[in-house]
Amino acid sequence: MPHTADxxADxxADxxxxxxxxxxxxxxxxxxxxxAGPVHRIAGTDGRPAWLVTRYDDVRRAFADPRxxxxxxxxxxxxxxxxxxxPALDTNLLNMDPPDHTRVRxxxxxxxxxxxxxxxxxxxxxxxxxxxxxxxADGRADLLATYAGQLPIIVICDLLGVPxxxxxxxxxxxxxxxxxxxxxxxxAKEAVGAMLRFYTGLIAKKRAEPGDDLLSDLIRVRDxxxxxxxxxxxxxxxxxxxxxxxxxGYENTVHLIANSVLSLLDHPELxxxxxxxxxxxxxxxxxxxxxxxxxPLAIRRFPREDIEIGGVTIPAGETVLLSVASAHRDPARFQxxxxxxxHIGRSGHLALGHGIHYCLGAPLARMETDIALATLLSxxxxxxxxxxxxxxxxxxxxxxxxxxxxxxxx
Length: 410
Prior knowledge:
This protein has a 3-stranded mixed beta sheet with strand order 1-2-8, with helices on one face. It has a 3-stranded antiparallel beta sheet with strand order 4-10-9. It is mainly α. The chain is built from 19 helices and 10 strands. Strand 1 and strand 2 (49-53) form a beta hairpin. The protein is globular, with a radius of gyration of 21 Å. Helix content is 51%, strand content 8%.
């Protein structure tokens, strides 16, 4: 017999944890929630109540359930605030359901080809080497600031065709949006305004002088009536896609790389194994992504109707958060889930999504992470943490699982 919404909320209140616990003590906090029940009420990413789904089978099914909408128009009034983005940045795949999602994704796939990604392999390897050249003589560095945080922005900007001189502010804009500074409440709004001006200006430049890059291809898809026909992109969809590709291509890959490095430093035998045989790194990617995923939560969803998840009935329009991090540590799905072990063939991680919202940039993220790890382990065989492990701090948000810094020596 499923719980009613009121009963479920009362039950969940006994086991709910605050956001600080989910940041600083993520996996034990999630384990306690997962053991206590499959669905709980927590403070969501916008501070308002949300339903957190914790168990693997429920999370995976929910990813593919068409009754759970990504479109904020299905949120109940006053239930969700989220980012305050203008339509020119908000009309993207993370806010769309079919048929709009199907239409836009189909048009983007035409430009975001595997061939284009594959052509980046050697440039990515070259950039990784150059970034390490710049710090090698120092013998120590914050690897997040100098390597993991630099490689993805260079790669995604090269892919989109962003001029080198226009890249300097992007990380600050991203940080202001994902982890706003409480001392500067206007910072996120200022970042949104700066990003909107940046993207509209960049598209105007590319429209006037197209190049051999993804953004020029997307503009062609938008402007060529024979290419997209009646289904072609709107101008807001074009600008929002450029915003999403740059933000997601940067944000998630930074944490994939940095989290993977930290996981390997925590497991020196595996680090040694991958350094001695870099050909094993691509096979280890899925386990590294499962063990320390870059996003603890999937993008929020809103039930189109009252829906039952894990025996709990969630009312239509309320916010549902799928805990990828909890699903990845569910012992009902993964053998010895708190151990990092790429040798036991644990498949089915959800770090790059599932179903129709599976990450378009997954091949690029995989390739960048593989090359970043192989290059780093080869160049710096004595790599180790410069500070005690317990001194490392995670970014103060449940939107992303990312370190504030990663000080290392070699």
